[in-house]
Amino acid sequence: MASHFAVLYILLSLPFCVSYLVSWGLYHWANRHSSSRDVRLPPRLPAAIPILGHTIPFLFDSASFVTRVTAYAGKLSCVRISLSMTGIYLFQEPEAVAALWKHPLLSSPIFIYTVGLRYLFGMKDKPLETYTADDTGPFRRPHSGTNVAPHNRSINTQRLQMSLSPRHEPGHRHHPWRPMPDLLQFFRDHVGRAILESLLGPLLLNANPNFLATLWEFDEATPWLAKRLP
């Protein structure tokens, strides 16, 4: 009876073993025959556990796991990992990162704004049209050929500059320079506030004085959202 179970176990596990070996072969072949001029999706990292994939090491040992899988033969690389019936692409290769930042969708923060507003804050499509219609670009001078009025720009550089101006700081005339112990805290309190005011105006923070602190609390939880956890 035990021998029958052993044979059944081998027969059931054989397809998974073959699939795993084939995946390893394709993974190594893709890495060894790729070049910086190739335009292709990153290779899929083989997973020994079906369905779960790389979920366990990604959840509990993220930093070392990502560092390990995004290197091949001593060089930074790109890879696709499997997480419970879905996948995530990890980009570390310098050429790939440079190409991503040159992509039109990443040359302006509008795309990132719309993704965050739609999927993180639940904004409906109708109000999102104001952002998607903004083709003025991220710079102070709008792109030529745009039909968006200056006051309708999603990124109002003039409001941002005014919010960052030191004249809004009390006592700036007598002490134009003020040492600060934490540069990150400066960006959170001052630059973050200026960006919010340039995007949404001053009414949001006037009505919700603790909004910025709550926003940074939410920001600290985003790594868990990236791991597909509630």
TrEMBL record:
This protein's species is: Aspergillus homomorphus (strain CBS 101889)
In this entry, which stretches build a coiled coil? Answer: none
This chain belongs to the protein called Cytochrome P450
Q: Does the keyword Repeat apply?
A: no
What InterPro entries does the database record attribute to this sequence?
A: Cyt_P450_sf
Q: Which residues cross the membrane?
A: 6-27
Zinc-finger in keyword set: no
Q: Which keywords are on file for this protein?
A: Membrane, Transmembrane, Transmembrane helix
Molecular function GO terms recorded: heme binding; iron ion binding; monooxygenase activity; oxidoreductase activity, acting on paired donors, with incorporation or reduction of molecular oxygen
